[in-house]
Amino acid sequence: MAQTRQLTAVLWKEEDMYVAQCPEIGTVSQGYTQEEALANLKEATELYLEEFPSAGGEKPQLTTFEVSVRA
To answer: What pTM did the predictor assign?
Structure first.
């Protein structure tokens, strides 16, 4: 019986592609739209977890920080 896990996806745009990353597992994928990148990440993560079922699991801590940028 398959179980479900709720994981985090971080998405950003690089040139003409969107990149999607799952920080808990370490999987990364891409697509031309956010939806495609997320679907590809889901597939990549499911395939990875078939091979390594106990990978990850801890929720990442999300925070912010400031940096100085010279104009």
So the answer is: 0.83
